[in-house]
Amino acid sequence: MVLLISMLFGLQVLCSWAASSSAQEVPTPLLSPNCDDTAIEEAADLALRQINADRREGYVLSLYRIFSVREHPQEITGSVFYFILDVVDTNCHVLSKKLWKDCEKRPAHETVMTLFSYLISGIRVTQVLLKTAKSLHMHFL
């Protein structure tokens, strides 16, 4: 009886191993869409809106440029976007809760250029890397 149970258990393990190894998907490659693609601009707009909504001090950040864009297509959840944004300060304080598109950019001599790296998945910013000349911070939203 012990031999039969051991054999059945071994057969079950072998079958599950064979099924899992054959079901492994080939990873999809990273795509390089244009920075002015509508989906990229919408993802950048969403990221900037969420970043500005979470800030409690300083000025509303406005988009200066998008670069280093990568897209990782997902079967079920859509695409995950990786990109870097250059942003600048506006004349609107973050407590005003104005959208970045409704604010005037500050003159270049009054602002600090900031570099953000984002991982966008679905409609939620899942990871933000904030890099300024003075510091490097990792935020998880």
Automatic annotation (TrEMBL):
Residues 24-141 form the Cystatin fetuin-B-type domain. Residues 1-23 form the signal peptide. InterPro entries: Cystatin_dom, Cystatin_Fetuin_B, Cystatin_sf, Kininogen_Fetuin_HRG. One of its GO terms (biological process) is binding of sperm to zona pellucida. This is Cystatin fetuin-B-type domain-containing protein. One of its GO terms (molecular function) is cysteine-type endopeptidase inhibitor activity. Keywords: Disulfide bond, Glycoprotein, Signal. GO terms for cellular component: extracellular region.
